[in-house]
Amino acid sequence: MSLKTFIAKPYARMVTKAVMRRAQDPVATQLCVLRQLVEFGGSTVFGREHKLHQVHDHAGLVQATHLRDYEGFRPYIDRIIAGEKHVLWPGQPLYLCKTSGTTSGAKYIPITQHSLPNHIGSARRALLAYIAYSGRAEFVGGKMIFLQGSPVLDKSGLIPTGRLSGIVANHVPKYLLKNRMPSFATNSIPDWETKVEAVVGETMTEDMRLISGIPSWVRMYMERLLARTGKRTVREVFPNFSLFVYGGVNYAPYRSSMETLIGGSVPSVELFPASEGFIAYQDKSHEEGLLLVVDNGIYYEFIPTSELGKPSPKRLSLTEVEVGVNYALVLHTNAGLWGYEIGDTVKFVSLSPPRIVVTGRTKHFTSAFGEHVIAEEVESALKEAMDNLPCEVAEFTVAPQLTPSDGGLPYHEWFVEFAVPPNDMQALAAALDAAMRKRNIYYRDLITGSVLRPLVLTPVSRGGFAALMKARGMNDAQSKMPRLANDRRYVEGL
After folding, report:
1. Percentage of the chain with pLDDT > 70?
2. Architecture of the domain delimited by 365-471
């Protein structure tokens, strides 16, 4: 047993005990967080405009702030990018996290000196919780691989900019540097195809014990690893591989195929990180749900999904939520986001401590591989493709194909009912794919990284959608075909 492994167990128990003490009294803990937020935020441009210094409780916060998505914050973000200080949070952000855009293209989410520990410390807590409750710390004594974005930041502006995982990679604790892989140089390779081969080359002879990343990317790494080594399973290459850490997508569709690659089941820890803040993590493998991070720079509100779209939806605090109800998640953070609608929906499975499961997005989406494709992206991409290749579309929807019958790479399948079909169906598919790559950087990366193949366009016979909706009792004036889904339930029967 290594010294790190020996020390990790009592340390993990100590940290996890302190975290759980605060989580068992989440209402009081959240009130402390709220008071800290308004104390710091009250002197900012936003704080003065909204009189945050007068906020003392949840009711006051609701009265002082209104709900915003990124577009609502964009004027403030633009002022930050231009160099203005004390806009949303005292001083300037340390970083701007570039993430997938909505109607405005790329989004730039501030990360401040106060919010950075939320991103780093919460991930650390998740691993310590696993050690505390499982009693297993063997992975601490070996190598750990984190498949993530490049740590090379864009410093052309006043504030360094990059992907969240790349920003966090610049702040790896010293005690992990010798264990962490891949190397900084390999992690900085921009092309995923080249990068994954370099990662395989660096890790294939190491004592790899922890592997972390989005399941689709990890699967690709494992396939390349086995091809390179000639082994049948990952366990043959890494006999001490003992923990898989993931986030971003539901692992369930991947579990069976991943375990075949691995050569058996392996303990896993699920994370719920976001550019706006680290929200929750799986702290107990035998209990459902992820532990909400209530004490680390985020104050939460919850909107019943039944209230979405109303002029003044109910905005609930932790004192008012119920188990089993779907809520849209709203954040107030020490990065300077106030009343921020993050777009995720959650459901509580326990209240003390508060544990949640992620139930989806506030809008229909496709994110089977972590790409977070939204309706506006597919609709505008289709319009662009049709402008260049004239045709008329009666109806369409998009669904992921995880297990193609030909055994090839998965893909997005576009089911399109044409009123007037294009002269060249393949040309339209290619134009659609190019338009999607422009709109969604994650989709583009998955294509260029050979995790997905280009989209497949499947024509639907005239009347096909109407017949399907009628068969499902959706043939009234209020019903419409979802543009996107994260599975194939809407396209079965087309």
Report:
1. 94
2. 2-Layer Sandwich (3.30)
